[in-house]
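Chapter review: from sequence to fold.
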Amino acid sequence: MALKTLGNKPALALDINSVTSMIAKTQLESGEIPWSDGDKTDPWDLVEAIMGLSIGGYYKEALKAFKWMADNQNSNGSWYASYNNGKPEDKTLDTNMSSYIAVGVYHYYLITGDINFLKRMWPIVKSGINFALSLQSNNGEIFWAKSPEGEIDHMSLLTGSCSIFMSLKCSLSISKLLDHNMPEWEKSIRKLGNAIRNRRHAFNVTKSRYSMYWFYPILSGALTGREAQNRIDKYWKKFIVEGLGVRCVSDEPWVTIAETSELVLALSAVGNNRLAEIVFGWIHDKRFEDGTYWCGFTFPNMIVWPEEKITWTNAVTIMAADALYNLTPASQMFTHKFWKESQISHLL
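The token string follows.
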């Protein structure tokens, strides 16, 4: 049974069923979830869309999408960077896209408690993580991709590596639940965490224009405590448009709903729910007539762009609402407190 609404929560009027039903209607019969009707699919955003479905109670559709992921995994554990109606478009093998399945699987388990689902998905998660870690440098950072010809691109992306850090946390938690000992993964997450905290020069600094570069170290839990708060404070004015949301890129007049919702998750992660709720309130009216959210908008002229209804954008708005209002048992999955109390806290 899908959740219907959050009613009169402060600064929020989110019709969850309208949002999740749009994701379900966009899903193809195969289980694939494209960005929007007729658009491409990428594995990372598909997993994000699955998490929206799971929060909304669309378990059958979520399982169908997980099956699509399992059926389309390459033999080396990777996925291609994009697909269109089941056919690969961009055959780049991206480490971040190939490991994020672990986050979606653990999230689904936290909501449903389905241990048999975890057992079925374990080989898929394990292979995806192992592919990503096969491109980890000796210093801990993870190279972003392998070309279709098999050549490793030795550029490391901070946002991608932070997302892989989150994927490793979830995959290690799954391994504990299933009594699998993964010592190499434990070494890898320690090295990766150290690289994110202490080897910032190893990552492509040109990406620092993007707001994800700002808050993903916090959202992933690689930075916690005072370090996390200092990073929030340091770049707040660079990316925040007060009363509107988060710029996707610091030097462009474009606010995006996904980045704003992810910042809400990051603020909630450090325990600042008051500020998180304020920021979330800025976007509650940035919706189409059917209740689904815009992808983004320019300012000050407030032109909606692009005009498509994006599945993963809408999914992350529900994830932000869950973090703020505890809609499901997975609501605290991104909080630092959750991981501090987990079985893998000694690795973080």
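Two observations follow directly from the output. The radius of gyration is 19 Å. DSSP finds 14 helices and nine strands in the chain.
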